[in-house]
Write a structure and sequence with these properties.
This protein has helices spanning 38-41, 50-62, 74-86, 89-92, 103-120, 141-145, 150-153, 186-196, 225-235, 288-296, 311-326, 329-348, 383-393, 423-441; strands spanning 17-21, 24-27, 32-35, 96-100, 128-132, 165-166, 203-208, 239-243, 267-270, 282-286, 353-359, 362-367, 396-397, 399-402, 411-415. The protein is an alpha/beta fold. Strand 2 and strand 3 (32-35) form a beta hairpin. Helix 8 (186-196) runs parallel beside helix 9 (225-235). Bound molecules: pyridoxal-5'-phosphate.
Length: 443
């Protein structure tokens, strides 16, 4: 039957997914696939957990919707309280949660919170949200403005505000051509330099992903980097926004990735794993300093979405948290991570695998033309897409992206399986990848 959906890509065939169970997705034609990328780092508790659907159905029978301009709901209050209890200690007391329908809306919300925060404090000149090159914070125009990814920005350049970008933090391919620790965190210090230059008192906030997911393929910063960013933001009195849409809710082995470096941001954005794909849900966790400025200032945030804090999404979020806590899935991530990286060990020595990196259950495998020099394949060769297709033929789903070298060139796949992934399933991922390499490169 011809499709009536406007697809992501008109030149691609999309199999019909009809069922999910555990780490597996089943298609209409009777095939099954191991979901090694958790549908873009979304699925944490696994597919097909019946209790989530039941909780959503109960909520729909009781109250399906109430507009947040007139009502709060017990189910939203409960999820906000639980999320804050998981947040870094410095955000819990006096912090609040703003719910959205996904990650991009969370980024938009954080940008506007940062702007209004400074208005509330009598600093109307502050509006820019600085970010990093090679970053991705969402697909709406505000979120694109703070995304430094060259290829994703290019078509919309005339529509995007230029608020300033600093260097990415990617030691494997340092854009400043420096080496850690001799670099003394020069990439972080670019923020200090920028904020110290003339006319930069217009900056309201800095946004970054603690571990860069899609655009750099799970690039983990060196020790001291995240702490240095936090220090610079504090010194210049701007807000630090951690985009934890991909890394939040346990993916890196901590509830939030910033905890790997004991940093407390002013704002954390959340999406993906918060409802494990059972509902469209995102959130902005707002620290006490920001909350207080609003509460003691104008008292009203000039922002809103019809579907924010939707009761069915709230029910899904609570039910997913129940599963994460009752089955101790947060605690499973480090062990499953060891299994995953051990299973990837054999592919590391392949002549076209340049790097295997990551933290927790967020892993990246980068492909290179020449291992010694790190030279990437030409973009037109679409190597990561070829690897994805070959791995899929072997029954394993991966997430390909280009651009990790300079925003255009550089091929990697991202792996971000559900936290329930077993030792044997990790082995299956390793074998499928090895055989995909063989079929794409002939050895
Ligand atoms: C780090 C990060 N921020 C924001 C987003 C946008 O989230 P969404 O696609 O739910 O709007 C994404 C999505 O991939 C992301 O990876």
């Amino acid at each position: 039957m011809p499709s009536h959906l406007f697809p992501r890509n008109f030149r691609k065939d999309y199999p019909q997914a009809v069922r999910g169970e555990g780490c597996w997705i089943f298609t209409e034609d009777g095939k099954r696939y191991l979901d090694a990328f958790g549908q873009a780092a979304v699925v944490s508790i696994g597919h097909g957990v019946a209790s989530i659907g039941h909780a959503m159905a109960r909520q729909a029978e009781q109250l399906s919707f109430a507009h947040t301009s007139q009502f709060s709901t017990p189910v939203a209050e409960k999820l906000a309280q639980r999320l804050l209890a998981l947040a870094p200690a410095g955000m819990r007391n006096g912090g609040r949660v703003y719910f959205t329908s996904g990650g991009s809306e969370a980024t938009e919300t954080a940008i506007k919170l940062a702007r209004q925060f400074h208005l509330e404090r009598g600093q109307p000149e502050r509006y820019r949200v600085v970010s990093r090159r090679q970053s991705y914070h969402g697909s709406t125009l505000g979120a694109m403005a703070v995304s430094g990814n060259v290829a994703r920005r290019a078509p919309y350049q005339p529509l995007l505000s230029e608020w300033g970008h600093i260097a990415s933090c990617f030691c494997a391919r340092c854009e400043l051509h420096l080496k850690f620790p001799d670099c003394m965190l020069a990439c972080a210090n670019e923020l200090d330099l920028l904020l110290s230059s003339a006319n930069w008192n217009s900056v309201a906030a800095f946004i970054f992903e603690p571990v860069v997911g899609a655009t750099l393929g799970a690039a983990v910063p060196p020790e001291g980097y995240v702490q240095r960013l936090a220090e610079i933001c504090r010194e210049h009195d701007i807000l630090l926004i951690a985009d934890e849409v991909m890394t939040g809710l346990g993916r890196t082995g901590k509830k939030f990735a910033v905890e790997n470096w004991n940093v407390t941001p002013d704002i954390i954005t959340v999406g993906k794993g918060i409802a494990s794909g059972y509902a469209a849900l995102g959130a902005v966790i707002v620290g006490p300093r920001v909350v207080e400025a609003f509460a003691k200032g104008s008292g009203a945030f000039q922002h809103g979405f019809t579907y924010q804090a939707h009761p069915l999404s709230m029910a899904a979020g609570n039910a997913v948290l129940d599963v994460l806590e009752e089955r101790n899935l947060f605690g499973r991530v480090p062990e499953a991570s060891r299994d995953l990286f051990a299973a990837l060990e054999p592919v590391k020595s392949h002549p076209h695998v340049g790097d295997v990196r990551g933290l927790g259950l967020l892993a990246g495998v980068e492909f290179v033309k020449d291992k010694a020099s790190g030279m990437p394949f030409a973009r037109e060769e679409s190597i990561c897409e070829k690897i994805r297709a070959a791995a899929m033929l072997n029954g394993v789903l991966t997430y390909p992206t280009q651009g990790c070298v300079d925003g255009l060139q550089g091929d990697h796949i991202l792996l971000a399986p559900p936290f329930t992934i077993s030792h044997d399933e990790c082995q299956t991922i390793g074998h499928a990848l090895a055989s995909a390499l063989k079929s794409v490169f002939g050895s």
